[in-house]
Write a structure and sequence with these properties.
Length: 107
Amino acid sequence: MSRAQAASDVFQAIADPTRREILAFLKSGERPVSELTGQFPVTMSAISQHMRVLREAGLVSVRPSGRERFYRINAEPLKLVSGWALQYEDFWRDKLVALGEHLENES
């Protein structure tokens, strides 16, 4: 998979609010899929689809244990998102400085 496609997959994966919530939930550690389904007001089938998208984007890994599947976050691909967002840091810093100066002049 190319770097551009991998980045696209990560951005697609985190575009969905439920998937972002799943990633936030997994930050505290590995969880069984049964626990994930109890945390979100969606069907088991929907959770399975979300987990497939996250797995394909490399954002989670799965460990089968007997009948249960345990999911763990892999935050490494999120570096792509962080790197992309960082390119706008100077832009927003300049905007906040300009806003602060404007507010001081208004006082």
